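**Backbone shape codes:**
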Amino acid sequence: GKIHHFLLSSFSSRRKAERNTGVRIVDFNRLLFCRLTILILAKVRSLKYGSEAQRPRKVPSLQEQTAKQKKTMRAIGSALPLVLLLSPRAADGFTSPSRPAVATGRTARRSLRSTIEDNASDEKSTVDAMSAARSINPVLPYDPADAFTDDSTGILGGPIPYADLTVGVLKETFGGENRVSLAPDSVRSLVDAGFTVVVESGAGETASFSDAAYTSVGAVTLPRNQVYTRSDILTQIRPPASDEVSKFAGKTLVSMISPSINTELYGALTEQRTNVFALDCVPRMLSRAQSYDVLSSQANIAGYRSVIEAANHFPRFFAGQMTAAGKVPPAKVLVLGVGVAG
């Protein structure tokens, strides 16, 4: 009541000033209008959301949604006359000389109520139609794998038992590459799952993994050509050389391909129907894909190596020292981080 009295007194003061000056004051008390709008929105929000925090969350029924919308629109319709009193510019589209602002608010409220009832009727008809359709053709949960196993697409066939698949580990031929795509512990996991694993002879020597370490976990060591012919899935770190691309035809390759850089290689592999898993393109923001991360994990190792290399070139200690023999100031190091490994 106090707010309403204050608004009416402000409105009468504005009208008196307009009569004395002969000028319409359109922007009168704009700050008051903004504050009132905020109060109205806060009231509407409390009516709409306040009760939900007091009860367990559940999906509201159609009747509950309609009742809540009507309650909200009643609050808006009740506050609309006050808004129109404060803002003549807002009332230009609603009022006329024969229709005062309060009557306009009631008209707007009835119009909003009619609109809500029409929307509720349309929504109820839609829900009834969907319920009838589901009773005839039940909707099964969507599985993204259906797009690959559907016979009409021909992308993938039926499931293949692990015992029928052979995984081949190739030796890296890129100059200076000492890593190997699968360590003996990883091979043991594949063998336990049912896969047959063949490893190229000497594939892990530069990574300190002997052939005996692979055979002890159930793998078989073979020459490179036999690894190509016997394997269904081939793994290596570096992209394959151009003279070996044809050997991956009809097989699955798991590697760091960098298709946006090696466009010709990627085109050649796809033309010969090679299933390529580019590990450098796996979206690592997904929790399930964290274990497939081959970029930041390797960059972390490179960053560690860079510190060692820098310490080798620096003529003093990195850390400062204070000893009986003297004092050594700490080094000033500039770290240039790239990506998440920085």
In short: The chain is about 45% helix and 10% strand. Strands lie at 166-169, 196-200, 220-222, 233-235, 252-255, 275-278, 321-323, 326-328. The radius of gyration is 37 Å. The longest strand covers residues 196-200.
